[in-house]
């Protein structure tokens, strides 16, 4: 079973994440940030991950530490659950429309973390959440899960739609990339025989 549980405590946040890669998209998420919970729920559902998140952070300061640290811990849990990545497809990509918006994501589960973020958000907030924090979450996820991740909004007007389509596109790309390939050899999907480096 490809699953992991990670707890991380700092002076700023306490984060608990439990996930199962080969799940059904069930989620149980409480971060104290309503719109962020909504995005993590969409991420779990469309990646078909079973995901439980409990996050307590210094929201009296702002939401930055909670959002970034949640990305760190979800990324660490994904990396732990994937292990040596034997048998996975490794690559995945998805285009996701949402009304007037279209976004795409491409993922390489490579253990070579990198984020390309081509998403312009015209509003500074969605609800109470600062929109600049979405890049921070995607960056933390990519760096800690060992993903090369490219996320791009091709067009759109509604900021909510743009952000949500980015989460869903990333989820679908990762679902494909992390899937077990029945034709794969019993080795990591690399001509080098190992991933990373």
From TrEMBL:
Catalytic reactions on record: D-erythro-1-(imidazol-4-yl)glycerol 3-phosphate = 3-(imidazol-4-yl)-2-oxopropyl phosphate + H2O
SUPFAM superfamilies recorded: Ribosomal protein S5 domain 2-like
Keyword Amino-acid biosynthesis: yes
EC number(s) stated in the UniProt entry for this protein: 4.2.1.19
Metabolic or biological pathway: Amino-acid biosynthesis; L-histidine biosynthesis; L-histidine from 5-phospho-alpha-D-ribose 1-diphosphate: step 6/9
Keyword Plastid: no
Pfam families documented for this protein: IGPD
Residues spanning the membrane: none
Localization (cell): Cytoplasm
Enzyme class: lyase
Gene Ontology cellular-component annotations: cytoplasm
Highest taxon listed in the record's lineage: Bacteria
GO biological process: one example: L-histidine biosynthetic process
GO molecular function (one): imidazoleglycerol-phosphate dehydratase activity
Record key words, sorted: Amino-acid biosynthesis, Cytoplasm, Histidine biosynthesis, Lyase
Stated family: Belongs to the imidazoleglycerol-phosphate dehydratase family.
Name the record gives this protein: Imidazoleglycerol-phosphate dehydratase
Gene coding for it: hisB
